[in-house]
Amino acid sequence: MLELFSLTDLTGTLAFAVIALSYVMTRIFWLRIVAVVGLFLQIAYFRLTGSDTMAGIGWDLIFVAINLVMIFLLVRERASLTLPEKDAPMLRQSFAGLDDAQIARLLKAADWRDAQPGETLTKQDHAVDSLFFLCSGRASVEVNGSFETYLEKGSFIGEIAYLTGNLATATVVIDEPSRVLAFSKQRMAKVTNQDSRIAGIIYELLGRDLAQKMRRSNTRRVLLQDESDVL
Length: 231
Known about the structure:
The chain has 231 residues and is an alpha+beta fold. It folds into 2 domains: 7-80; 88-230, Jelly Rolls. The chain has 8 helices and 6 strands. Helix 1 (7-24) runs antiparallel to helix 2 (28-49), helix 2 (28-49) runs antiparallel to helix 3 and helix 7 crosses helix 8 (196-230). The longest helix has 35 residues, at 196-230. The model has no long low-confidence stretch (mean pLDDT 86).
């Protein structure tokens, strides 16, 4: 039993367990931190075995150096990623689940726009080049020329076309002076491909937003049907 649980075996088991843990982590920064810890433990294990493992230790040191350089670059990038001060509270609330650096990275895929009443963001049966997020103001939704509903602050616009790649299912027109984030599809794809956490949160938010819109739309149809039955 003592041999089974020797310091060498425990160190080796812990080293490989920590390295295995790094493989399932989704946040690249912490993945690299955990990987470095695992590699140092592996070096300690190689030293404790006392066997000819200089090749293994050498490669571990190379992997540690690579990860340390990447950690330095990530820290430097995060230091440069700051949120606009006046928009920070709104952005943190709207994109809950992402840290400030991830939100700032997401903003690199977007352009701020001041939209005026009458401006059309999406047109039914037309291609949609951007995914819009309504930061302030209000927009109206029309389907087949008929008013469907209003969209308020915190709503996505063009999410169905973004998710499916199909044409817009509705026409969305700005009703009052609004501030909008227009996410480029190409730039958004680049950001989400680089960070699975951002991708997961965005798809979760889009799904939740779409579900809320469908509930509102269904409720409106029921109310209109009830009014029609009364008349």
